[in-house]
Amino acid sequence: LMRVRDGDALARACDLGLAMQLTNIARDVGEDARAGRLYLPLDWLKAAGIDPEAWLAAPVATTELRAVIARLLAQARQLYIRSEAGVAALPLACRPGIYAARHIYAGIGSKVARAGHDSISSRARTTMGQKLGWLTLAMARAAGSVVLPCPAVLHARPVAEVAFLVQAAARTAPGRGRSDALLAVLAQLEARDRGLSA
């Protein structure tokens, strides 16, 4: 399990997680609807003139629904861009995997967009070749992150949806490691031995 100690890097990691989740939601609208689930923002649907219950009963890729999916993917793109500043603050060993996940999910979002934001009729998929390409790009970006300057967006406030996570992480005091616990036990034993011999 990776631990992110820097609050700004944690906020950017949360941005990435949220971007990937929004992309997932956009990709799975049809699949979710057929299972009786709806994860699109209800206020966005209502603003587009879509009755969520009526649409869920008969899911169709209307112009209005496609606009909602496009809006969701636009939000995800902004979060992908914000998230990149934090990747360079993560441990070097995990950067290639994080960059790869970022590019693969963004690629899924691009597939949904190329399908006219219709994720009801079919589910967007990426190919193995694309994934290998993004993995290669991720390795190059991870290597470059060692020498490139850190973007200023690293210090941007977390978005409201994940601010509580960043605040909770900031409030928790770092736990004692095993070596600290062992040293404390040894100190107690030594103090007890001195007390007995006095």
Short summary:
The chain is an all-alpha fold.
Task: Tell me what you see in this structure.
The protein is mainly α and 198 residues long. Helices cover 67% and strands 0% of the residues. The protein contains nine helices and no strands. α1 (7-27) runs antiparallel to α5, α1 packs parallel to α6 (95-114) and α6 packs across α7. The termini are far apart. The model is unreliable at 1-5 (pLDDT under 50).
Feature tags:
198 residues, mainly alpha, 9 helices, 67% helix, disordered N terminus
What topology does this entry show?
Elements: H1 7-27, H2 29-34, H3 42-47, H4 52-57, H5 63-87, H6 95-114, H7 128-144, H8 160-171, H9 178-197
Helix pairs in contact: 1-5, 1-6, 1-8, 5-6, 6-7
* N-end to C-end Cα span: 46 Å
Helix content: 55-70%
The geometry reads as: elongated
Number of helices: 9
Strand content: under 5%
Mean pLDDT: 84
Instruction: Please count the beta strands (DSSP E, at least 2 residues each).
Output: 0
Name the poorly predicted regions.
1-5
Largest sheet: none
Write down the Rg.
23 Å
Written as H for each helix and E for each strand, in order along the chain, the element string is HHHHHHHHH
Structural class by helix and strand composition:
mainly alpha
